[in-house]
Structures are given as structure tokens and as C-alpha cells.
Amino acid sequence: MNTRNVILSCAVLAFTSGGVSPPLAHAAEAKPNIIVIVGDDMGYADVGAHGCKDIPTPNLDALVKAGVRCTNGYVSGPYCSPTRAGLLTGRYQTRFGHEFNPGGGANIGLPLTETTLADRLKAAGYVTGMVGKWHLGAAEKFHPQKRGFDEFFGFLGGAHSYFPAKGKAETILRGTKPANETEYLTDAFGREAVAFVDRNKAKPFFLYLPFNAVHTPMHATEGGLKKFETIKDNTRRTYAAMMWAMDEAIGKLLAKLKDEKLEQNTLIFFVSDNGGPTMQGTTINGSVNAPLRGSKRTTLEGGIRVPFFVKWPARLPANKLYDNPVIQIDILPTALAAAGVEPKADWKLDGVNLLPHWTGEMKTAPHAALYWRFGQQFAIRKGDWKLVRYDTAAEGGKGPSPIRLYSLVDDIGEKSDLAATQPDKVKELQAAWDKWNTGNVAPLWGGKK
């Protein structure tokens, strides 16, 4: 057992024996490992912890049982790249003009004015690695190894074939060089995540693991498809096989942590980057967002409310439900607090350290309100109330909806618009969003607030 594990064992023994919980900022050897896992275009209903019956996700379910499940977990964008930009900076991505997916061009990507979670943790003594989908700029200056990551294995764009040998194998990179990858991509990402832990198990590490599963293209292995042959719908069957492969890859990583006796002092987050793409009553990848209404690309709950799980046995309770609204921009300040890094005011973080909320030390809600802006769409959630204008094209309409008001505690499916009967609440939430929008939105691609 290495020095880190000896110190951790003593701390955990004191904690589990009724002693004082170990402090967040210990000796350097006791700093937790930190892992952030991201699923891509997952349906809200498509994990066992949310009631899924036709797709087993035993490893994600085990993570939930050993930690905290946030029942009101959100992301700050209903689209792939904006969510990643917010996650890695701890700031609403509208602050620096990253409102949409980058469409190409040498200067389109996560602005160089922004500091990433990898930058922050590297400065705190962590070895930092990324395995998976980047989607924050393909130009050299935006490369993960220019944004705080010591190691990178994955691809730079927004989508990729899961069978690299059948298309664009040269765009799977190890560092900046083609990796000559031939394995099914989800399996390869699981393999590389395990290898990263193996190389860095003697020191504190940060691993960012954004899968491209279950984003299109819909590619599954023959073994996966056979496992789900009882699912008659071909798209859903392929989706199930892809979800299962991601869960298996996560399971291999969790098993590696356990084998190396790193499980107790590893802080793991899991989120999806947005809801499933179920536009116009169909489903592009076979996902299901029930009981939520709406889809990826909308500010309805189906676009922005996601599976949100966290585990850290040394500090957090097991099998806990946490009901106050939280958002993926909270991951950065929470991880920094775990690492003993004190944020500075000039970082202008929008996220909140959630650790004291999850342990019960703080009883108040982490946020007075949460905000969204996505072109003409917007939303604000304040308490149980949500004011929203969304893109009706996702439901077969044309253009943005009227402004609508929902009480999410009574109406998680956003079926009953209360705007006409609650005009004062509409005015209150609209004023709050307008104020936020004035102070937190910069010009696209390169502005800063």
C-alpha cells in the first residue's frame, strides 16, 4: 500500500469509527483523486436509478447506491459543447460567448481567456488526463494539452464513428498524433481510463472522461446487439447496446479503483451533457426522456435536466437523494474544495461547492435561481417555479413558444402553463432573468463577462 493509501486508511478509520470527518485540505498525500464522467445525449429515463427496465446499467446504479443522486440535476446548456464549456470553467458559458456548438474555424473554441478545471488542479499538484470527446475547438491552440491536461486520448470534434477502422481512424489521437485505434471506441475509452489510473495511482490525479456514447452515429458491437435482441425497435436496440457498453467501461474503471484501494478517496461525478434528442415526437438515437417533456436543443426539462450522480466514500453519504437544484457548473468549485483549492473572487465562478450541502452541514439550497439562454430560448428556475420560452420546432411547431410558467414540484412534465393565472410570478422571474442576462452574457466567441 502506498503512502497515500496509508494516510487515507487512517483518516477513514477515524471517520467510520465515529471520529471527526477528515478535513478537505489534508496533507498533499491525502488529496482525493477526482474523476468526471460525462455521457452524451442520454435519455433521462435510460438508467436503472431512474427506473429504466430494458437497459441494465448495473455500474451506474452501483455508483448511485454508494453516493448521492441529485434528483434535480441540470446542465447549463441543452447542447454538447456549451455544457462542456460550463463544466470545465465553473461559469455560465454565456459569460464568454460559448452559447452554441463551435461550427468550425481557427478561432472557434473554448476561449483562451478561460481557465479550466484541469488548469486549476494541475496548479494544485494533480496529474491531469482526458479520455474521450473534446468538442471545445479543433485548432491547435484549443487542444486539451494546451488547456491543462497532461495526457489526452480521444477526438477533438463533436461526433465520431465507434468503429475507427471503418472511418477517420486518424482522428483518434494520443496527444497530438494518430493513435491507430482499432477497438470499438467506447471500449477503447474504458481501456485508456483504466490505463491512466494505473500509470498515476501513486499520486493525486484528475481524469476527465467524456464518452461520445450514446451520441450518433448509432454503432454497436455484434455482441451488444445480440444481448438486446428482444428489443424489437432497431434504433432502441442499438442504443441499448451502446448504453450497456458505456456502463461496462465505467464498471472497469470502478473495478480498477477498488483493486488499487483508491475507491475510498476518489471523488466521482457522472452527468449527461444534455437530454436525449427526441425531437418532433421521434427519437434520433432511441433515447427516452420520460417523465420529462422536451428534447435536446430545448430549454424544456427534457433538454436540460439530466442524470447527476456523485460518489466519494471518504466524505459523502451513501444512497442519498438530494432534491435541491444543482447544475454541472457546480462540479468545478466542488472538485476544487475537495482538493483544498480556495477559489478567488476574480475567477467569477457561478458554480457552488456542493460538498457541505450533500453532507448536510448546509441546509439551504445551493442556488437562489438557475438560468439558461440558448439563442431565442431561455429559462429560469427559482425554487419550484420555472419560466421558459422554448423552441417549438422540437415538437413539430415553428419558432419560439410564448413565455410559459410551470410549477415543477407539481408538474415535472411541464404540461400546465400557469402564466395566465400567476402574472406576478411571471413578472418576478422575468425580471430576475433579465437582470442575469444583462450581466452575464457576452458576444459570441470571444467576449468576456
- Number of E-type strands: 16
Which strand order spans the largest sheet, edge to edge or round the barrel?
A: 7-6-5-4-8-1-9-10-2-11
Largest sheet features: 10 strands, mixed
Give the radius of gyration: 21 Å
The CATH architecture designation of the largest domain is 3-Layer(aba) Sandwich
- Multimeric status of the protein: single chain
Number of helices: 11
N/C terminus separation: 47 Å
Sequence stretches where pLDDT stays below 50 over 5 or more residues: 6-29
Strand content: 15-25%
Name of the top-level CATH class of the largest domain? Alpha Beta
Average pLDDT: 92
Helix content: 25-40%
Alpha-beta content class: alpha/beta
Q: Total domains, how many? A: 2
Classified in CATH, the superfamily of the largest domain is Alkaline Phosphatase, subunit A
What's the CATH topology name of the largest domain? Alkaline Phosphatase, subunit A
SSE arrangement, N to C = HEHEEHHEEEEHEHHEHEEEHHEEEEH
Tell me, what's the shape? globular
Topology:
Elements: H1 3-16, E1 33-39, H2 58-65, E2 68-70, E3 73-74, H3 80-89, H4 117-123, E4 127-133, E5 151-155, E6 173-174, E7 177-178, H5 185-200, E8 205-210, H6 222-227, H7 234-259, E9 266-272, H8 301-304, E10 308-311, E11 320-322, E12 326-327, H9 331-338, H10 355-359, E13 370-374, E14 377-382, E15 385-389, E16 404-407, H11 423-440
Parallel strand pairs: 1-8, 1-9, 2-11, 3-12, 4-5, 4-8
Antiparallel strand pairs: 2-10, 5-6, 6-7, 9-10, 13-14, 14-15, 15-16
Helix pairs in contact: 5-7
